[in-house]
């Protein structure tokens, strides 16, 4: 697997693995199956693994720590904090607001270190910035953890360009984790330019549109009860039908090229800059294998342009989050 750099200090596989779905949001799966998938990822050369205290909550970090223990020196473990979490609840119901108090950074890091069973968190992200807390204060507290060796590198998730700049002035930010895919173009322009200029890696989450861009999910009824996607506007029946017509075009283009729609979607993100490292979520080994192979799919400039136009933002039906969702960035 080719590698790419995130900031100055982290070198990771060009395609990472998002681990959220193994314990959160999409129905999870049993631990033994997840461990097999995680071990297969290491075998394939995947070295960036993404989790968060919010996933489960907490159980996803425990899973990652357990599964990756034998491979500690081969992997980069990224985790996140920043939500106020109700430990008595699961999935989205457990996220009851934001907690960006500077002292929370230390508490969260120490708890994550324990759950992961590691001495250092390789990449520690602020999951969502609370605009009521100056970014300088919370990043200052995160920077103190780097000094102490508890954290290796810092990241932000879904931050605006202005917040990225202010944070980077306090301590180098290695990675920005924001949603970016064929159907979510929000980072294009100011955010991509800022990352490129400051040498910050962009780590796009949900690069497969939460699975939709693979063509595998075709109806709202494809999701089991409680699946987080059922609550997202883009997955409402009418929006999904309109968006599916666009995905069908991607499937046709992929078939003509001899790849899958998932691989097309990942190759497109990779083609947007060498500082970009998508990390699709996959519980199932065949999905993981297909995604890892996308690192070798090259798109021509014409193909990238064709995809740009095929799924331009004006054609996408539905917002990515519903108003008032815990995940909606506050800016
Ligand atoms: N910072 C944030 O706020 C934030 C928000 C959301 C997610 N994330 C992170 O981003 C990671 C990735 O995003 P995501 O999991 O939401 O969405 P995604 O990567 O866009 O899609 C994951 C979905 O696609 C399916 N899939 C994966 N590869 C496939 C393939 N080749 N063919 C068919 N289906 C395939 C998966 O199925 P199976 O699981 O069944 O294999 C899963 O249902 C998460 O795991 C999480 O770590 C971060």
Can you describe what's shown?
The protein has helices at 31-43, 59-68, 102-116, 135-147, 161-170, 190-198, 237-257, 261-270, 285-293, 301-310; strands spanning 3-6, 10-13, 17-18, 48-50, 76-81, 83-85, 95-98, 121-126, 151-157, 173-177, 201-202. The protein is of the alpha/beta class. It has one domain (3-210, 269-297): Alpha-Beta Barrel (TIM Barrel), CATH 3.20.20.100. It is globular. The strands form 3 sheets. It has a 7-stranded parallel beta sheet, with helices on one face. A two-stranded antiparallel ribbon has the order 1-2. Strands 6-7 form a two-stranded antiparallel sheet. The chain binds NADP nicotinamide-adenine-dinucleotide phosphate. NADP nicotinamide-adenine-dinucleotide phosphate binds at residues 18-21, 26, 50, 127, 157-158, 177, 205-211, 214, 216, 262, 279-284, 287, 290-291, 327.
List the helices and strands and how they pair.
Blueprint: E1 3-6, E2 10-13, E3 17-18, H1 31-43, E4 48-50, H2 59-68, E5 76-81, E6 83-85, E7 95-98, H3 102-116, E8 121-126, H4 135-147, E9 151-157, H5 161-170, E10 173-177, H6 190-198, E11 201-202, H7 237-257, H8 261-270, H9 285-293, H10 301-310
Parallel strand pairs: 3-4, 4-5, 5-8, 8-9, 9-10, 10-11
Antiparallel strand pairs: 1-2, 6-7
Bound molecules: NADP nicotinamide-adenine-dinucleotide phosphate.
NADP nicotinamide-adenine-dinucleotide phosphate binds at residues 18-21, 26, 50, 127, 157-158, 177, 205-211, 214, 216, 262, 279-284, 287, 290-291, 327.
